[in-house]
Amino acid sequence: MIQLTSKQRAFLLSAASTEKALIQVGKDAVTPAVTDAVAEALEARELVKVGVQKSCVADLREIADLLAERTRSAVVRVIGRKIILYKQHKDPEKRIRIPM
Questions:
Q1: Which of 50, 63, 84, 91 sits a CA distance of 20 to 30 A from 44?
Q2: Beta strands 47-52 and 23-25: pairing type?
Q3: Bridge partners for 83 per DSSP
Q4: How many Cα neighbours within 13 Å face the side chain of 81?
Q5: How many Cβ atoms from other residues are within 10 Å of residue 18's Cβ?
Q6: In terms of residue numbers, what domain contains 71?
């Protein structure tokens, strides 16, 4: 799993603040379809916001950690019912330039 510094988290959090949730987690929590959708979104964008519906009774932090583990990404933050995930792009030309 990727380790982010507090400075990097703050930078990514500000970058994600204007984005809308691309993927919604429903009452079934983390299904293979949700995991695949998050993985595809991370491949395309690096930074993904996931919304968790109120019908989902699972713990949000557990959902975030499970998604991060399955997609090999980092949890930037869990805010309210939103989860922000980051995974560095394989192509250096397409990467978000985050501070070291």
A1: 63
A2: parallel
A3: 50, 78
A4: 14
A5: 7
A6: 6-90
